[in-house]
Amino acid sequence: MRTTRKGRDATRTAPPTTPADRPGRRLRTRLLAAVLVTLVAVLAAGAPSVAVAAGDLTASQHLLRLTQLNTSAIALSHALADERDTVTAFAAAGRPHGGGLTPDQEAGVDRQIADVGQSAASLDTQGSADLADVTRDLRTALAGVPNIRQAALAGTANADQVFDSYTPVVDALDAVSGALARALPDRAADPDTSAGPALARAVTQTSAQHGLLIAALDSGGSTSSLVGAARIARLREQAAEDDFTAAASVTARTQYDQTVTGSDVQAADGYLRRLTATADLTPADRQLNVSTVDQAVSARIDRMRAVQASLAADDSSRLTALRDHDVTALELRAALVGLCALLTLGIGAQTARSVTRPLARVRRYAAEPTGPAPVASGDEFAVVARAIERLSAELDTLRQRVAERDEERARIAAVRQAAAAERDELRRREAVLLEERTAVAAQKDTLARDMRALARQMDALVQDREALLARLGSLQGTVHSTFVNLSLRTLALVDRQLALIEGLENREQDPHELETLFRLDHLATRMRRNSESLLVLAGADTGGGAVSRPVPLVDVVRAGVSEIERYERVRIPFLPRAQLVGFVADDAGHLVAELLENATAFSPPDAEVRVAGWLLETGEVMLSVEDHGIGIPAARLDELNRMLADPHPDESTSTAGLGLYVVARLAGRHGIRVELRPQSQGGTCAIVVLPAALVTGPPDSDWTQLTPPADPFAAHDTTPDATTPDPGTPAYGTAPADGTPAYGATPNHGAEPAQGTPAHGTPAHGTPAHAAPEHTAGPTTPTPTTPAQAGPAHATPAQAAPVHNVPAQTGPAHAAPAHTTPVPGAEHARSAAGPGAGGLPTRPRAGGAPGPDEPAAPDSTRSGAPAAGGTAPDGLAGAGGGRPAPAGAALPKRIPRASGLSGEPAVRGRDTPVDADALRRKLGGFAAGLRHGRRDAEAEAEATGAVPLPAPRTPGDRSDSEPSEEARG
After folding, report:
1. How would you classify the pairing of strands 621-626 and 684-690?
2. How many domains does the chain have?
3. Compositional bias (Low complexity) spans (predicted)?
4. % of residues, the chain, pLDDT over 90
5. How many Å apart are CA 731 and CA 615, to the nearest integer?
């Protein structure tokens, strides 16, 4: 605003303004437009977020309604499945009067059908073709249930047709869970919901098996179609369970495993496997109690349905929480956008008013300068108005001085401006320095406080760590002692069980019952070894140090063979006549058992596992366990050998099995060296070197040492050239040059056993069968016999059958050998022993020379019983085929905390002499009777359809043990 003054008393004038020339209105319009544009921009920026939240809420509400429909469909599916099973059994039984469905059952199912149909009709598919098809098929299937029920109850359809008519309805109900899993968005995806369809199929197929099998049991006619449908349902159930396990979370799988368990579930699984094993029901299956089968399978179905209902309830709860979260998010976003809009509107209006009101007052004063200045004390433009008044009063005086002071004013103004600028710069720098100083001081204080707090936290953490370490040590000690105590208790219970089983074996006469007892005995022996393995892993002593006297090495190896599952595959060509100190016998047998277990487990089921031993020049004994399996990769073999060389292997840093850990612990305990080596012909060889401190000489014989290589492990080279010793040097443990069999040599195991006897190497407990008669009390003189003198003229086939596993050396250590005849197949034993080994003893045939497929029977001096004044033989388990021995003649058992392994078995004297030929005839008659009894029992079982008797063991059989065909006389 400009004013002109002509003289001191000139009147201030201003040209009149028109409404079009008023800038105030244009300013207010522009300010209002700016406020409105800002408000619209805020609303536009917040609208997409609100729209997304609203869409999420709509989707979550739709999913919640779909989940509720799925829950109702699951309940209706269970009810219809039960109705289907009942009606199918009713039709299979011929629709007897008074059977079928009760009115209450029909009314309950109809109410559920109405509820599910209404929910499906009211469900918004939201343009999803898949969901629309599922709901349409569901309504169509539910509409036909009354007609299906009426036709099943009053019609003439058979059980198969009744079952098939209900199946589409149940499948349509189960399809809802699949639609729910497919409809879930990424933000609501859950593995348990995705696994729901698989669990629904498993429950449906289990219920189908229940209905079909119950109908088959109730039916009096042909049941092949019902059983065939049940077998298909069985396969579908297993596939559905596999799908559920693959898709479900760990929590859901754990819940399923913990719920679907128990004796009823196990019984149901057994019934289902048995009834679906064949294409039709067997006569034995028809004898089953239908009510018992129904209750067991129904209990399993109820547990599976409980898991399915629980998962559906979890889905409903999770989607309800998702819906609530979406509602909260929508409310928060809408409130935030509204608040921003209100703030924008208020701030804009206040800013516009603060600009327009002072300008209006200044404009009015400019229009009337003669009047008082309308300046408010708190106005933003008050300073400007007062300056205008002072300038108006002093304008005349200043004009008079302008001419003379223009130059000075200009200079002073310039100096003042420079000084002001310098002052402002100094003040600005001072303010910046003060701010930096304040910030540095604040940071220093903050760092000091943080350091003190960090020091206090470190002290607290150190104290907590020490307390936790002390607590952890206490807990580890408690857990370790508890673990050892429980293992010792288990071991004691297994020992008691073995004692009870042995007592039952001694009193039992029925061969079938003896077969079962022998299986239990062998299984309990393996259980005892597993308990001892647990004690070894826990670092506890198994009590083997209780044995005080030396134990023959052959007994230690026999004890190890008796404690494995496939003992019949083990062959022992030769062992040195050495003994181990008593305290190491149990652990050495345990170590050999673990190596044999691995060798039989990782080799073909029909392949042999060979155990041999050598006496080294240093006084050590080396054992080798050879298998013909798939072998071990070189890197893995090195890792295992490093673990076996460590006396305290770390279980957490390797993937070795339990057996090798036990071997490493036992070897480290007694200084035994164990190494695994590959074989050139395939398989793996385990070398065990027993220190000389643990080895003693054989009783009543010379201690002969053979020269080994410098490296004990090199004594068993895996190359073909190294496996064959020098022709001029006898191999360790082979027969000497004078024809005396080597200690531990066995009869030919390549010959076929006689009919009715088990295959080679199938003792009930790993012991050789001492089928030969015992010698009479008193001294006897061994007399060589010819083949013609081997047995009576009228010997039965059982009498002429070879009695394998009879030790090759009996009597005193230097007794003269009996007459022997080489047999075909003995070359295999000679090649295992080396070129320098002598021939194996053979058994002549009754009444003539031995045949090509049957070893000759030995004379009385080579029977399993010792001659008077001599010692009992050391037979080797698994060295050849033979008849299983009774429990009393089983392989030596390692008894923890007791007497341990015995050396030579005690000689039992007789009060009266025994006729060897009479005893042979008696035992042969018993064996023939057993064979005839087995054939009669098998024929009767085939005729009646009963469970067949167990067949003799084949090379690929994996059963725990085999029955003992024992001649008890």
Report:
1. antiparallel
2. 2
3. 12-21, 712-742, 756-780, 786-847, 864-876
4. 17
5. 10
